[in-house]
Amino acid sequence: MTDGTPHFNIHAFRNALVEWFRREGRDYPWRRTTDPWHILVSELMLQQTTIPTVLGRYDRWMRQFPTPAHLAAVDEQTALRSWEGLGYYRRVRSLQAIAREIVNEFGGRFPDNAEGLKRLPGIGPYTSGALLSFAFNKAAPIVDANVARVLARIDNYSVPVDSTEGQKYLWSRAESLVDPEHAREFNSAIMELGQTCCSISSPDCLLCPVRPFCSAERPETLPVKNPKPQVTRVEHHDILYIRGKSVLLAKCPEGKRHAGMYRFPQREDEHTLSLPHVLKQTYSITRYRVTRYIHHVTDTPLLREGEEFVPLDKIHGLPMASPDRKALNSPTLGKLLDHIR
DNA sequence: AATTCGGGGCC
DNA sequence: GGCCCAGAATT
């Protein structure tokens, strides 16, 4: 059933969804504000990151950087350190670049149109629509994983939602559905529906406010997605080398993964590999399944580009990826580092 | 059109 | 362990 059929009354659909949201919608910090800076921070944090994770970080970030000027004023290292643990660190670089542009070029004001917003780094179709609707209450469409799931089910649409054709269809559909009178609430509502009634594996259609408008025959089988890339297993060998009260760390180069962040130096030579490891970790990063060994080196290693000795009391302030921070805070390494504390 | 970029939470 | 996510940028 689509809005071309006599059964689909678009006004009734919008009203049912918005009224349900007014009753049942959950309270998030980013739903208590229309300040574009606060909305922008929440949207960048939430890109490919779950609400529970962001809830644990959002308020602290907003206290530290209450305005674009606050983030614009600190160095990149500080921004990365504050983002630590959230991953996809390009997001915080984009956020800081936006903050500086807003302050220095736009007199502290955000663009309120899609063309202006999409020119900013890290802002694509979704985040642009989110800012326009959540901050400015403009009738811009949004399509995220929640909206894609809801729309695919409502239309019983079985083309992969992550295909070009699927994306084109969903964006067009979202644009035709968004309520021009209540854009902010409508977009919040359709996302909320995807998180609650219209969840992935066990949709609760009995509680769904828009069930009369839904064509899904087997909702749990929708949406269809393209297959994921295969997981590759890799092994990394890194070193812990202590000199005086300092530890040898490497700064990750620009343009690569974890750019600007610090890590334990990598060594894959036979001598290092022959040393027993003091720590073994396994973790996943994007499509890689990593087994990582940290070897305790006592002979002075040859220093490489980007490697430097960092006093132990300075390491806390440097940005590190989660596995490295966890390694540093592990009891095993902690015991070794206690000697130089 | 495919790949790169993290990490935590959940099952 | 595998799966998922309030995506965007790059190749």
Automatic annotation (TrEMBL):
The record, for Pfam families, names:
HhH-GPD
Cite the GO molecular-function annotations of the record: 8-oxo-7,8-dihydroguanine DNA N-glycosylase activity; adenine/guanine mispair binding; iron-sulfur cluster binding; metal ion binding; oxidized purine DNA binding; purine-specific mismatch base pair DNA N-glycosylase activity
Give every HhH-GPD domain span: 45-196
Under Enzyme Commission nomenclature, its number is 3.2.2.31
Catalytic activity as recorded in UniProt: Hydrolyzes free adenine bases from 7,8-dihydro-8-oxoguanine:adenine mismatched double-stranded DNA, leaving an apurinic site
GO terms for biological process, alphabetical: base-excision repair; mismatch repair
Its domain of life reads Bacteria
For whether the record's keyword set contains DNA damage, the answer is yes
Cofactor (UniProt): [4Fe-4S] cluster
| Keyword annotations of the record | DNA damage, DNA repair, Glycosidase, Hydrolase, Iron, Iron-sulfur, Metal-binding
Q: Which InterPro entries match?
A: DNA_glycosylase, HhH-GPD_domain, HhH_base_excis_C, MIG/MutY, NUDIX_hydrolase-like_dom_sf
Family recorded in the similarity comment: Belongs to the Nth/MutY family.
- Function of the molecule: Adenine glycosylase active on G-A mispairs. MutY also corrects error-prone DNA synthesis past GO lesions which are due to the oxidatively damaged form of guanine: 7,8-dihydro-8-oxoguanine (8-oxo-dGTP).
Q: How is this protein named in the record?
A: Adenine DNA glycosylase
Q: Which organism is it from?
A: Akkermansia muciniphila (strain ATCC BAA-835 / DSM 22959 / JCM 33894 / BCRC 81048 / CCUG 64013 / CIP 107961 / Muc)
